[in-house]
Specification:
This protein has a single domain, classed as 3-Layer(aba) Sandwich (Rossmann fold). The strands form two sheets. Strands 2-1-3-6-7 form a five-stranded parallel sheet, sandwiched between helices. Helix 2 packs parallel to helix 3. Helix content is 37%, strand content 23%. The chain is α/β, with parallel strands linked by helices.
């Protein structure tokens, strides 16, 4: 497994329990520190505002609510993120953000997060 993610704190916002549990296990096995998984928009907004994290994984649809306000908070805080979605197209302001279409392979998630973390300016 890649060492690029060793010690990286990942905020996971995902409402599907099995997907969230699988992501949490995979990220932990890659050496990440996992915050979450957070299944609801209100909790995710709180976490995005207050949680110290290096990168985030955002499920677009949280029990029928869109995750975009969480993305906006993270963007304001310069926290990079990747959307995971079963939908093909993201709204214009998010179209250039990294995205994984469900179902995705966990290796795709880890590779995407590694690329994002490498490209992000240091937060310290």
């Amino acid at each position: 497994m890649t060492t690029a993610l060793e010690g990286v704190k990942v905020l996971v916002v995902e409402d599907e329990y099995l997907v969230a549990a699988l992501m949490e296990d995979m990220l932990a096995s890659a050496g990440c520190v996992v915050a979450g998984p957070i299944p609801r928009l209100a909790q995710a907004l709180d976490a995005a505002s207050s949680e110290a994290c290096d990168v985030a994984v955002l499920d677009v649809n949280l029990a029928g609510e869109r995750v975009y306000p969480v993305a906006d908070i993270l963007a304001q805080r310069n926290v990079p993120f990747v959307f995971v979605t079963g939908y093909g197209v993201l709204p214009g302001e998010y179209a250039n953000r990294p995205r994984l279409c469900k179902p995705f392979k966990m290796t795709e998630l880890l590779d995407t997060l590694s690329d994002i973390v490498k490209a992000a300016p240091p937060s310290h």
